[in-house]
Amino acid sequence: MCYYLNLTHRMFMRKSLLSAAFLSIFALGVHAQKIETRPQHSANVGLTPIKQGNWMVGGSLANIGYSFEGKAFNINLQPRAGYFVSNGIAIGAQANLGFTAVKGTDNEWNYGIAPFLRYYLPQGASSTGRFFAQGDIGIAGSSVGKDVSLALGANLGYAHFITQTVALEVTAGYNYTKSNVNLGDKASGLGVGLGFQIYLPGKK
Fold first, then answer.
1. What confidence category does residue 73 fall into, taking pLDDT thresholds of 50, 70 and 90?
2. How many C-beta atoms surround the C-beta of residue 38 within 10 A?
3. Global confidence as pTM
4. Domain coordinates of the chain in residue numbers?
5. Which CATH class is domain 48-200?
């Protein structure tokens, strides 16, 4: 009788231990899954994405501006690609595709291309983000008229890295266009933009 009681007790203890082990493993799995699926908001990248030899591909998806002379609002899409010629300095080219609503005249579609130079400032830098300055000079045209304009731009921005290779960007700056058909001999204005960049490592 005692033998059977002891055997029953041992079997009960084994089942209890196995149940506790399974519950512990399940709880750990759920906890790990929660950690893995948590949205990533920033990444500690340091200087890695902007080192010499790397590439950047992306652009501004929502670039909104206002012209002083013609009281015109515009919205642009600016895809760009660049190459880091040294640490923190990239050169490249961007396309300008947009729409301008001009007060008192016909609306127009805009297009253009501009080489650019971008410099990532050491001041105010953190492990997850960097300020930068960008200047560009190129040509621009519109659906109204056949003239080609000289287009200049100077912008300041901030890049916040959400992964090791992807950064969200916000920019603000000044733009100048010479010989614009609709807006007279020249047009100047301010603009703000929101976009992203993908940083690709170069060949080692």
1. confident
2. 8
3. 0.72
4. 1-38, 48-200
5. mainly beta
